[in-house]
Amino acid sequence: MDTGTEGRRTLIISNRLPYSVRQDGENLSVEPSVGGLATGLASYYQDHNCVWVGWPGADSGTLGEKGMEEVAAMLEERACIPVFLDADEIGAYYDGFCNSTIWPLFHYFHTSSTWENVSWEAYQQVNRAFCEAVVREYRPGDIIWVHDYHLLLLPALLRRELPRATIGFFNHIPFPSYEIFRILPWRREILEGLLGADLIGFHTYDYVRHFTDSVRRILGYQHTSGEILTGNRLVKVDTFPMGIDYTRYSGAVDDPGVREEAARLREKYGGRRVILSFDRLDYTKGIPQRLRAFDLFLQRYPEYRDGVVLIVVAVPSRTAVREYRTLKRQVDRLVGEITGKHGTIDWAPVRYLYDVLPFETLVALYQIADVAFVTSLRDGMNLMAKEFVATKHDGLGVLVLSEMAGAAAELGEAIIVNPFNTEEMVGALKDALTMPENEQVRRNRWMQERLRRYHILHWARDFMQRLKATKTRQRELEASLLSTEQRERLVRKYQAAGRRLLLLDYDGTLAPFASRPEHAVPDSALLSLLGTLAAEEGTEVVMISGRDRRTLTEWFGGLDVGLIAERGVWACRPGSEWQMTGPLQQEWKEEIRPVLEIYVDRTPGSFIEEKDFSLVWHYRMADPDLASARVKELRSMLFDLTAHRDLDILKGSRVLEVKSAGYNKGRAAARWLDEGPWDFVLGVGDDWTDEYLFEALPEGACSVKVGMGLSKARVHVRSLREVRALLEDCLRPDGGQEI
C-alpha cells in the first residue's frame, strides 16, 4: 500500500493498547484486546511499521515495579509501549472525565455529564503522561497518529515538545453541535488541544461542521475549505468515514468453524426469522428503545409470534460507571417483560446474551440474521452495520439503521429510521421482514461494493495521504515567512540607508483588534518605538489606517509621524493640517445610513462607526453565524444601492465599509513614495485593504504581511509581535536577535 510514508514509523496513540495484561496469581501474560480501536486498526498495525502507545489495562499499583517491567518487556516484543495508570487515575480519568463528562456530552446526553475538577485534573495529568511516553519513543521522521476522545489535549502537548513533528488526530465518536459543546467548562482547552494536530479527522461532514463552528465561535478562528489558520499554523479538518477489514468478515463466512456454528444456530432457532441486535451495553446505543419497538411490533403483528426471534447481544462495558449499571438493570427488566408478555413454553421472543462473543460466533450470527436492527440514539460510525453487510454473500438480509449513526451517511440503501420514533422502527421491522429477495440483493450489492472499496486500509491510506498533503501545504506557507537571513538582510539595508520610508498599518499590524474600535489604544511601548523610529535621521514614518482622522490625531498627533486616515481619504504630514487627497461627496450617507441601521437592529452586537467620508458596520461582537448571513444580505443590498454611484464596498476584518471609490492606501502612500528616491521602503499590513499598498510599492521595496494566506507582499510574519520585534531590530546596532 502506497501511503507516501514508507520507511517512516507510525506511532499509534490510543487509550488502550491492542494487548491487555492478564494476571493469574503471580503470573503475568498479555492477550489481544477485544473490540474498539484494537480491532479496527489491527490490520494497519500489523501490516505497517507501527509502534502502539497506550494503557495495557492493568492497575500499576497492583503490578508493582517488577510487574510493570515484565509487562513492558512482553509488550516491547509486540511493538507496544505501555503507559501505566494507577487505580485513582483510572477512576478519575477514564471512568470520570472520559466516560462521565466527554462521552455523554459528545453523544448529546449532556444532562448525564458531570463537571468535576478532580476528573479534569486527572485528564490533564494522564494526557501529560501519554505525552512524555510519546516524546521518549519519538524519532525524527515518525508520524504520530493520536486517536479518540481520551486524548483530546495530547496534540497540543506534543506540539510544544515536538514543534516540527507530523501529528494527526482522529475522533471516533461524534463531535456535538456548538450549542452542546459550549456547555463544557473546559471547551477552550479542548479545542486548543486538538488544534495542535496538523490534520484532524472525523467520520462525517456533520462532525467537521460542528467542530469548525465551535472553533470559530469560541476561539475566533475562521476556516476556508476545512483549513484553519490559527495565527501561526495551518490545521486541516476533514472527513474520513472509517471502514472495516472487509476481506476478513467477507472471507470468514467460508471458514469451516463459522459454517458449523451457523448451522448449529439455525437448528437452534428452528427456522424462525432472526433479528440481530449487537452492541456494547451503552445508553447511546438505544437498546431499551429497540426492545420497546420489538414489543410493539409483536403486539401489532401477532402473526409473527413464534415465527421470529430477537437476539440481543450486549457486550459488558464501563461497569464502574453508575449509568451503565442502571442501564443493565433496565435491559434485564425489559427482556423479562417481553418474554413474559409474548413468550410460550416453546418460544422465547428474545434471546439475551450479556457477554463478549468469539469472532466465529459473531460472524455466524451475522450470517443467519435476516435483519440487523441497529438503532443507536447517537453513534460516531457503528462498524457492526458494515460488518453485517460484508458477510451477506448471497445478498439476503436487511439492515435497519439509525439516521443518528455515522454509518447512515454511507449506507443509504439500508432502511434508515429515527430511533426516537417507535412507530417508525416498528414499520421498519415489518418492511425488513417482508422485503422481496431481489430488493434485498440489490441494496446489499451496492453497499458491499462501497465497503469493499473503502476498507480499513483505504481509510488509513486516505488519512495518511491527506496528512502528508497538509504538511506540504504548511511548508509552502512557511516558505513565504520572513526567514532569519531575510530579516538580517532587511535590517542591514535599513541601517545602511540614507533616506527611509516606513508605511505601517495599525490595527492587526501593530496592535491587536479590540471588541470596539476605541478600545484599541496604542500602548506606551509602541508609542516609544514609533517615536524613536521617527527621530532617526532620514527616516519618515507614516501610519496608514482605516481609522478616522480625529482618532489618529489623538493617538499619534504628538509624534513626528505622517498620518493617513480612512484608508486614503485624509493625509496629514507632521506638524501640518489634515488635507483631503481628492474631492469627495458625503450626501450618499443619508441613503445608506438607514440601511445599516436596519442591520444593526437585526444583528445584536453590531454597530455603526461614522467617519468623514465612510460608514462602517462592525460585527465583531455579533453571533458569528448570524453575522455571516447578515453580511451577505447587506453586501448584496449595498451593491444594488451603489450600482451607479462612485462608491466602494469594502469587507475588512469583521467590518463592512462603504466609502467613496478610488481612494485606497496605495494611492495615498504615493504622496510619500513620489518624494523619492528612497534608499529603503518598508510597507507592513495585515488585511486585503493593505494589498493596494503592497501593489503601489516600488521595485526593491520590502513588503510584509501579518498572517498567512495569499498576498502581494514579498514575505509574511506570523503575528504583530514579530512586526514590533523587526522594527526594534532596525534600531539596534547589532541588528537584534532572532525572533
Automatic annotation (TrEMBL):
Enzyme class: transferase
Catalyses which reaction(s): D-glucose 6-phosphate + UDP-alpha-D-glucose = alpha,alpha-trehalose 6-phosphate + UDP + H(+)
UniProtKB keywords: Glycosyltransferase, Transferase
MF-aspect GO terms: alpha,alpha-trehalose-phosphate synthase (UDP-forming) activity; trehalose-phosphatase activity
EC number: 2.4.1.15
GO CC field: cytosol
Pfam families from the UniProt entry: Glyco_transf_20, Trehalose_PPase
BP-aspect Gene Ontology terms: trehalose biosynthetic process
CDD domains: GT20_TPS, HAD_TPP
Family: In the C-terminal section; belongs to the trehalose phosphatase family.
NCBIfam families: HAD-SF-IIB (TIGR01484), PRK14501.1 (NF011071), T6PP (TIGR00685), trehalose_OtsA (TIGR02400)
The protein, known as: Alpha,alpha-trehalose-phosphate synthase
